[in-house]
TrEMBL record:
Membrane-traversing stretches: 12-37
Full protein name: Uncharacterized protein
Record's keyword terms, sorted: Membrane, Transmembrane, Transmembrane helix
Lineage, highest ranks first: Eukaryota, Metazoa, Chordata, Craniata, Vertebrata
Domain of life: Eukaryota
Amino acid sequence: MSDVPSDPTPLILRAVVVLLLIPLLILMLAIVLYICFKAIRGQCRQEDMELEEDNLAVMPRQAIRV
């Protein structure tokens, strides 16, 4: 007996499903990376703003001492 199936339909369906799933998985990965980097960038900006506020609070004290 031959191992090759006589009906190619399951093979074609499997190929179509795989070819549709690969771009979908890449798209999902891109979305996850975008959200992660956007969240990280937002945290960095928040930390920068806090540092600026601290520096602004320190500046008047230094001006008084001089």
